[in-house]
Amino acid sequence: MDITFREKEGTFNFRVCGILIHEGKLLAMHDEKSPYYYLPGGRVQLHEPTEVSVIRELEEELGIKTKIIRPLWLDQNFFTEVVNGQRYHEICVYYLIDFSESDLLSRGKEFVIHEGHKTLVFEWLEFDRVKSEYLFPLFIKDAIFNIPEHLTLVTEIH
């Protein structure tokens, strides 16, 4: 069971995301409903450690085996979703990911994966481009230029 709940005041999500970097590029994605890029990952399940969640989510979305290098950010994010107008309170742990034993780079600069009824478009975005793209979470636009050595708390209120 995913750790998420909806109330009339908004939705709470507990999520994980993978930070996959190669030669100054960040792997980001979007789908047919989202006008913005976001990072691969998903919801944490009840009684599931976040380290297990991020590996599971990346395998589900990308079909690859990965390893965690280290946790980077714990983000508390309060925002209104532009697609559906709902208010969200989200907690997300971002992990730096080692994907060196996968075929991910052979898929090209941009590739498409079908997950159920969703079409996911993945793209390697140059760091300089990340700053100007429509990308969430917003803190990544600056934080990607200074990857922390230790877990860092981020709070975003939009």
List keywords for this structure.
158 residues, single chain, 4-stranded antiparallel beta sheet, mainly beta, 46% strand, globular, 6-stranded mixed beta sheet
Contiguous low-pLDDT stretches (5 residues minimum) are: none
Strand content: over 45%
Rough outline: globular
Order of helices and strands: EEEEEHEEEEHHE
Number of helices: 3
Distance between the termini: 28 Å
Rg from C-alpha positions?
Answer: 15 Å
Approximate helicity band: 10-25%
- Largest sheet, strands/sense/barrel: 6 strands, mixed
- Strand count: 10
Derived structural class: mainly beta
Mean pLDDT: 96
Report on this model:
The protein has 158 residues and is mainly beta. 15% of the residues lie in helices and 46% in strands. The chain contains 3 helices and 10 strands; from the N terminus they run βββββαββββααβ.
Spell out the blueprint of helices and strands.
Layout: E1 4-7, E2 10-19, E3 21-22, E4 25-31, E5 41-43, H1 50-62, E6 67-80, E7 87-98, E8 110-115, E9 118-126, H2 127-132, H3 140-143, E10 152-157
Parallel strand pairs: 2-7, 6-10
Antiparallel strand pairs: 1-2, 2-5, 3-4, 4-9, 6-7, 8-9
Structure summarized in a few sentences:
The protein has helices spanning 50-62, 127-132, 140-143; strands at 4-7, 10-19, 21-22, 25-31, 41-43, 67-80, 87-98, 110-115, 118-126, 152-157.
